Amino acid sequence: MSDDPDANPDPGDGTEPGADTDFRHRPVLLDEVVEILSAVPDGLFVDCTLGGAGHAAAVLRAQPGLRLLGIDRDERAVQAAAEVLAPFGDRVEIVRSPFSALAELVRNRTTEGATAVLMDLGVSSPQLDEADRGFSHRAAAPLDMRMDRRSSLRAAEVVNEYSFARLRRVIAELGEERYADRIARRIVEARPIEDTATLSEVVSSAVPAPARRRGGHPARRTFQAIRMEVNRELEELADALDAAVGVLAPGGRMCVLSYHSLEDRMVKKALREAETGGCQCPPGLDCVCGAVPTVRLLRRGAMKASSAEIESNPRARSVRLRAAEAVGGRAS
What we know:
By secondary structure, this protein is an alpha/beta fold. It has helices at 30-37, 54-62, 75-85, 102-107, 125-129, 155-161, 164-174, 180-190, 196-206, 209-212, 220-231, 233-247, 261-276, 307-312; strands spanning 43-47, 66-72, 92-96, 114-120, 248-258, 295-297, 320-326. The protein folds into 2 domains: 30-126 and 233-326, Rossmann fold (3-Layer(aba) Sandwich), CATH 3.40.50; 149-231, Orthogonal Bundle (DNA polymerase, domain 1).
């Protein structure tokens, strides 16, 4: 998955055999994910953001002792993944759900926890490429941006009904947009805005001309921010990270791929807290607060895509992979 609609690979690349050709998925850091999860015990593998099932299929092929619980809130993704994963038969169960429900979904299926958990965050390539979803600033479409079309909040409400202050905060915080004040003011002045093409034009007109000539499309960050607001992405991620650490069985591993700094900071913080057990003691001194570590980090710092992968799949450019293993399990 990716949050970079400006980096759009050839739509014919990366299509999974047998998949709905309108829901293409090109897994990022695929070999690295498969290698990290190769050391886990047999048991339940949870792909929290199933998408086109590229990662899930590769892990299942490499690990015959794993069975998959695939989670995605996008109906199109669920349908496409079911086709890709059909050859694995009863080793696969797919659930349409937000991944914040991870703990309950695992508890309902096993008392032993999950031996592998994968999260590939952000919006998927197919969602960006389907113009009618409203995720992309490159085509005219309804202001929707819902990953789960059962949800009530649409981008149209954010754009046309949020107060100036609330809209500015969304764009500044979720989009990390330096021109949030100007953009929010211009959006409010242009209301009602009916489609994504108009929104893109309005946002672009609010960005100073020198800034429009660098750093990708000037509406990219604002579209990202509105999408994240519509789908409550950071709230979902916070709940899912806590749940993932909690459901890992001894020796189980979790991998999280993120694509922008807000997500990556949350992942880094959650894993560090699990690694220390939330220890509050001064650095360098023995712990006396009773904190109990629950994971160990598999490497310091985030893993990034190679230059070769970025060249073949530009959407891998911003990916950061962090991984951890439940304490008490086998060392790699």
